[in-house]
Amino acid sequence: MSIQDVIKKQVTENKVVLYMKGTPDFPQCGFSANTVGILRACGVQDFFTVNVLEEPEIRQGIKEYANWPTIPQLYVNGEFVGGYDILIEMYQSGELQKLLEKAAA
């Protein structure tokens, strides 16, 4: 199975997927920590995470998969939502909360 197949499986088999540096309890960068905080502020407690620092193939592969150069990356219902900059804008406008509510339904 190619790394792209692994990523596709992860994002399609889980409702909310976050590719991040570190883990939700021990994030290894500020953007990842803030993204976890945003998800929790939206009421999302159960989400699938991948620590790209422990999986270098995924770290590079996810950038190619989404054609997005930075980590963290959020996927909801198999669709790429964005990185931290997009997520904070969506959170502030209320759009992210609506998207996550639909995912939980």
Give a description of the structure.
By secondary structure, the chain is of the alpha+beta class. The chain has one domain: Glutaredoxin (3-Layer(aba) Sandwich). It contains 5 helices and 4 strands, in the order H-E-H-E-H-E-E-H-H. It has helices at residues 3-13, 30-41, 56-66, 84-93, 95-104; strands at 16-20, 48-51, 73-76, 79-82. It has a 4-stranded mixed β-sheet, with helices on both faces. Helix 1 (3-13) crosses helix 3 and helix 2 runs parallel beside helix 4 (84-93). The model has no long low-confidence stretch (mean pLDDT 94).
Please give the CATH class.
Alpha Beta
CATH architecture: 3-Layer(aba) Sandwich
CATH topology call: Glutaredoxin
Helix-strand topology string: HEHEHEEHH
Q: Give me the Rg, rounded.
A: 13 Å
Largest sheet: 4 strands, mixed
Our estimate of the beta-strand percent is 15-25%
Shape: globular
Number of helices: 5
Unreliable residue runs: none
| SS elements, strand count | 4
Mean pLDDT: 94
The level of helicity is 40-55%
> What separation lies between the terminal Cα atoms?
31 Å
